[in-house]
User: Which sequence fits this backbone?
């Protein structure tokens, strides 16, 4: 049976003892009904999987002994950032969950000219997205949570793109050149996907003239913005992570 | 501005006049508020896009004149069937919507040994999935609706697989062999994705021993069943549709 995964704070690892606290402890005890002697995988974001056995419950904390430690094999071998223009309603929930599962390392939400959705003051929304991502991290076997950043504008995105080996821009006017046509051993990759309204002409021009930007098509059909993000992430991971 | 798409019945094409009837006419008139002189693309599932202009409203029908007819370029160039084991809750909604956008031609829902969800008697559910698919067809620019079949068992799936050039089985124990490693000019392709519980050992064995079956991994992370379907469909279209 597949072992469950729970997060712990690195400060709660002392010798071969890990103490699970907070929400994860509550979830393990009250929802998953783990008992003394049960095993699970404890993760803290350092790339390691701690296989532990429960030895004691103290108040709402769970005391565990480490049985073995292994390198986590689900953590991505390429560093992919998804720049996603703001989307309406709960579409960002889907993007965050699926991009985390697929292997994206960082998601940057930004406002572009044609965005209908706005971000200002939605700190609750960021909490929610982080929670979705942490759940997806555990579910898909990754050991490290992904980073989600909001409150960017298109100009902030432009300013960062020189930091990447390869920038992949899902461009609605691109033809006959897809992600699988990009060859190279790229390790630090950015994906840029627009909002429901796409990008303005001047935004497209600003992106297309950058030297490391590949303007690609995602196929012959018009994908919804959230589908484009999921598809582009899947193609990038399949193409560049060996 | 992108023209909207509405379905019409092929019998309602007479010379250069198309009559839009039923739900699509109601939607065009009352929701999209189209008026006389407005243009849209009328589709009827024959691979053609009819560019039309509204000339008259008669009762709840819309009478249009055909301006030009073009081959639809969004219809997939490969024939992909997604065999999807039944999933819980509304996950099939997501699979159907995304697979339609991505370019799958047919979706076959089937019950396997470890399926928690059952299909029996859910004709409402099939109506709902068909409706989602028709909407996605129009949204992504395809001219032909996809086919959705339910009420299959695993054995029915097995019996059909000889009809495909290439069968792609998303197998959780596969390693180092992904969809992008499959080379060949395949035109008729099946994708097989399990339920939340995966496949039983005997089901896996039955699939793996078929000659045209490729047992592939979808990467280093454990994908939810619905994510696996979306990712596999995206990779197949990118790899085999030129």
Assistant:
């Amino acid at each position: 049976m597949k072992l469950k995964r729970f997060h712990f704070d690195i400060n709660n690892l002392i010798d071969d003892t890990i103490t699970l606290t907070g929400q994860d402890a509550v979830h393990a005890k009250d929802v998953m009904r783990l008992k003394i002697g049960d095993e699970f995988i404890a993760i803290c974001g350092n790339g390691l999987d701690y296989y532990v056995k429960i030895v004691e419950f103290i108040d709402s904390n769970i005391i565990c002994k480490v049985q073995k430690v292994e390198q986590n094999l689900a953590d991505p071998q390429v560093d992919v950032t998804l720049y996603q223009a703001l989307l309406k309603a709960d579409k960002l929930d889907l993007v965050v969950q699926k991009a985390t599962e697929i292997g994206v390392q960082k998601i940057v939400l930004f406002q572009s000219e044609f965005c209908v959705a706005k971000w200002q003051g939605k700190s609750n929304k960021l909490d929610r997205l982080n929670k979705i991502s942490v759940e997806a991290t555990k579910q898909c076997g990754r050991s490290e949570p992904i980073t989600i950043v909001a409150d960017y504008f298109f100009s902030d995105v432009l300013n960062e793109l020189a930091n990447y080996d390869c920038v992949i821009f899902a461009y609605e006017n691109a033809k006959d050149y897809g992600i699988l046509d990009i060859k190279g051993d790229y390790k630090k990759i950015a994906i840029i996907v627009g909002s429901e309204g796409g990008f303005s002409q001047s935004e497209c021009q600003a992106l297309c003239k950058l030297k490391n930007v590949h303007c690609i098509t995602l196929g012959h059909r018009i994908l919804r913005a959230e589908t484009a993000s999921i598809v582009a992430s899947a193609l990038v991971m399949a193409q560049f992570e060996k």
User: Anything to note?
Assistant: Chain A is about 30% helix and 30% strand. Chain A has a mean pLDDT of 94. Chain A touches chain B at residues 2, 73-77, 94, 98, 101-103, 139-142, 178-180, 219-224, 227, 230-231, 234-235, 237-239, 241 (CB under 8 Å).
